Amino acid sequence: MSEKIKLTKEQVELVEQYAVFMEQTNLQPAMAKILALLNVADETELSFNQIQDTLGLSKSGTSQAISHLLATNRMEYKTKLGDRKRYFYVPIHKWKDTASRHFDGLEKYRNLNHRILAQRSKKTKEFNEALKEMTEFLSALHKVYTEKIK
Amino acid sequence: MSEKIKLTKEQVELVEQYAVFMEQTNLQPAMAKILALLNVADETELSFNQIQDTLGLSKSGTSQAISHLLATNRMEYKTKLGDRKRYFYVPIHKWKDTASRHFDGLEKYRNLNHRILAQRSKKTKEFNEALKEMTEFLSALHKVYTEKIK
DNA sequence: TTTTTAGTTCACAAAACACTGAACTAAATA
DNA sequence: TATTTAGTTCAGTGTTTTGTGAACTAAAAA
User: Fold this and answer.
1) CA A79, A47, A23: angle at the middle one, nearest 5?
2) Are residues A65 and A111 in the same domain?
């Protein structure tokens, strides 16, 4: 029988909105919905079947999405003695690691812009000045990160 | 005849790396390369033909990419009296507007997480606590934005 | 041993995406 | 008026993405 989880109307709404947001950050729909569910549901640890049934995905789709989420550290699982299933959860307590990866991307962008600026013709003064201001703002952001998280 | 622009080896390298970075943020390859070129090239204003020839794109591909970049405010153009062409450029002086849009996305994420937290069962104490910490960091980031840019 | 559970793997179908070439347009030039 | 310039539009093609169902596996339970 189905192991579909009961969600309030508000939870369904939140799952959908969270998933859409995640899709916009490059995540595939199925993965986005799984993450959304694990963030919103009352229970933070759900089994393969609970995920599949609640979201109405195929078995293979669920398997592939879960594998990818595990491989990219967006999800983890635990087991329970005397129970063959895995229980999947979002390692939200590691949110600082996730944030770090985002700031690494930002730093890469800052570095690219810095290199671009370094080799630019001195003739395009306004352009160069704006580019410099922007990289300085990126540095300021990075500083917040090192102070608050790193 | 071709209006291909001359780029140093380093500039070619930077165009490619910048474009790859942009592709990773959801931009289509052609658009990513156009933005990269306009950031790196000595001249900040390039014509349709200079862009097409330098990047080796088709005319229609160039047209469609430019239209989309203009529609999404990632590019603008100016004209010159007595010249029928448009000269395209990256409005880098508006980098604060671009940053604002990014922070709007972050704020949306913070708000979603805040709503999720507000309706969560009180039983998952650790999860809720971590989620709260994270939204607080998102608020701190947003504060930097309001102080430095807005 | 046979069956059930908890998945994994894979070939493929449907849809979306990215780009191309060819035909077209509208304004300027000859 | 005819031609050139500076693009635009669109149908189609090749590629990539997502997800499906069917067959498979490995361990546990009956």
Assistant:
1) 120
2) no
Whether the per-residue pLDDT at B61 is higher than 90: the answer is: yes
**Nucleotide with smallest C1' distance to residue A82 CA:** D28
Q: B98 and B85: one domain?
A: no
pTM here is: 0.94
pLDDT of residue B150: 83
Closest residue on chain A to B23 (Cα): A26
Integer Cα distance of B75 and B91 in angstroms:
6
Q: Supply the range of the domain harboring residue A49.
A: 9-90
* Whether residue A73 is found in the same domain as residue A144: no
* One domain, residues B22 and B46: yes
Are B75 and B34 contacting, i.e. CB atoms less than 8 angstroms apart?
yes
pLDDT for res B141: 95
Q: How far is B123 from chain A (nearest CA, A)?
A: 8
Query: Closest-CA residue in chain A for B95?
Result: A134
